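[09:14] KT: can someone run the structure on this one? pasting the chain below
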Amino acid sequence: MRIFTVLFIGLLSCNAVAAESPHILGGSVGYGFQDLEQSESHNSSGGDNFVADIYYRYMWHDNFGIEAGYFAGSGGVASIFTGIISRITDIEYSGYRAALYGEYMLSKSNRLYAKLGASANELSYNVGRWGSDEVNHIETDGTDIYAAVGWGLRFNSGIGINIEYQYVPVQILEVQNLNIGVSYRF
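[09:31] RB: done, structure tokens below
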């Protein structure tokens, strides 16, 4: 009888340990499009960009959490060619972000999710003048929205993979990315 009681208590403690942790650490890389809006001092410039993103998420509920992260991006290959035409080159951005996270479970490991929050960001780029070798380096900082939607898959080991669309306006730069990421629930 004692052996049965010890086994029963042991099984109960295993279930307590098997509960999902609220802590998730992850990162992603992506490729997308950027468009620097036109102003009086220079033409608009579009092109592609590469981005990297790391984050920590705390899930206070099964389907809701809060996320803090850091992102950074710069122009891609096509941006080099559009920079020749528009004379805007070396577009780089980075920032810290905080977002509310919500997910809809499609199955035990399969989910759709959305993020909505704010980013404190920095933007830098160079503006050249036609017929001149003079280049002005411009740096600005500000606060903007951060939004993302995606699909994720989490394995029993705690490792997850995801694909997401990000919309990140960075002051006068509008960035839209498709990211592929990996995360770990610990």
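[09:33] KT: thanks! The domain at 20-185 is CATH 2.40.160.20 (Porin).
[09:34] RB: yep, looked fine to me
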